[in-house]
Each structure stands twice: as C-alpha cells, then as structure tokens.
Amino acid sequence: MNSQLILFVTIAAVLTITPGADTALVTRNVIARGRLSAFFTTLGIALGCLIHATLSALGLSAVLARSATLFEAVKFAGAIYLIYIGGASLWSAIRAKNKESLPDVEQAALSDRRLRSFTEGMLTNLLNPKVALFYLTFLPQFIAAGEPVLKKSLMLALIHVAMGIIWLIFFASMLHTMSGLFSRSAVRRRLEALTGGLLIAFGLKLAFAKR
C-alpha cells in the first residue's frame, strides 16, 4: 500500500466515523425497527454513495457542480426528504406517548420495514448533492497523473463505501446490544424524538448549504 493510498484511507476513515445524517438515520431505524432494518438502511446508503461515485468517475457529476439550478433543486429535494423523515420520527414519538401505540417494529410487515429502510438510506444520499461534490473534488486528489481515472476513482470509492458499511453495521450492532433500554417506552420515545430532531436539523443544514 503506497503512501497516497494510506493517506486516503486515513482521511476516509475519519470522515466515515464523523456523525452525520447517515448515523442519525441508522440510529433512528435501530430504535424504531430493529437491527435488521438498520442493516438495510446501511445498504441503501452504500448504494446511494456508489451511484454518486460512479457518476463522478464518469464526469457526469460535473453537470451538477456547474449548474446552480440543478444543484439547488437536488439540494432542496434532499433537505425536504430529511425533514420529512425527521418529522415522521417526531410524530411517531408523540403518537406513541398519547396513544400507547405498538412499536413500528411490531406494526409493519418485515419485508415492508426492510424496503422502507433501504429506500430511506438510498434517497438520503442520492438527494444530497454534497455527496456528489465530495466524490468529484476529493477522489481526484489521490489520482496521480497517468493513472486510469475511471478505474482508480471507482477503486477509491469502493474503499470508502466498504468502510462506511463496516462502520455503520458495527455501530448498529453496538446500539442493538443496548436494545433492553429501548424496550422501555419512555426511553424509546425520547430517543426517537431526538433522532427525529437531528434529521430535521441535518435537513435544514442541507437546505442552506452552499456549493
């Protein structure tokens, strides 16, 4: 492993474990739907990142970077989606408190929970133009002159995505070991409300983000 690749892995590792919207979403889904749903959320997140990375390697993300209108449209769509998910979490916490409703993990069918979790993870990243700009600006710094751009870009992206999958699955598993705390309805409501608030905050942050 050369020094350039070591530097990339080091920086990517720090970025991976830094809490963000992905971490908040996985936390929310562990609490609301269980560990398996969090795993599917992680797979959705990974697919969203891979799509952005592939578009970046092919040069298509440059269109997003150059077009202010397209950037703003994708940005606001992503912000609205994050706020929607966060609002749904807050509403679920309030409804559970007022009506003592059963947890989401008991209400929804298993396949439905998996699909919803996967879709949430994927759309959270696909509708975030900052992810596209990250791959467009970050990866080229680790591609030397003369190296095949597409091949090297995809390799670096796969390393970053793999690190993300490993970290989020580990994180979800650690949270799951504390699932006994979540079984207490009051604690579960508070945590679901907290993660909902964080997702709304990340949505508002995205809405006001600049290129």
Question: Can you describe what's shown?
Answer:
This protein is mainly alpha-helical and 211 residues long. The chain has one domain. It has 11 helices and no strands. The protein has helices at residues 3-17, 21-33, 35-57, 61-66, 68-99, 104-107, 110-126, 129-138, 149-176, 179-182, 185-207. Helix 2 (21-33) packs antiparallel against helix 3 (35-57), helix 3 (35-57) runs parallel beside helix 7 (110-126) and helix 3 (35-57) packs across helix 8 (129-138). The radius of gyration is 18 Å and the shape is globular. The model is unreliable at 100-108 (pLDDT under 50).
pLDDT average, as an integer? Answer: 84
Principal-axis shape: globular
Order of helices and strands: HHHHHHHHHHH
The total tally of domains equals: 1
Q: In which range does the helix fraction lie? A: over 70%
SS strand fraction = under 5%
Number of strands: 0
Give the number of helices: 11
Cα-to-Cα separation, first versus last residue: 33 Å
User: Structural class of the helix and strand makeup?
Assistant: mainly alpha
Instruction: Flag low-confidence runs.
Output: 100-108
SSE topology:
Layout: H1 3-17, H2 21-33, H3 35-57, H4 61-66, H5 68-99, H6 104-107, H7 110-126, H8 129-138, H9 149-176, H10 179-182, H11 185-207
Helix pairs in contact: 1-9, 2-3, 2-7, 2-9, 2-11, 3-7, 3-8, 3-9, 5-7, 5-11
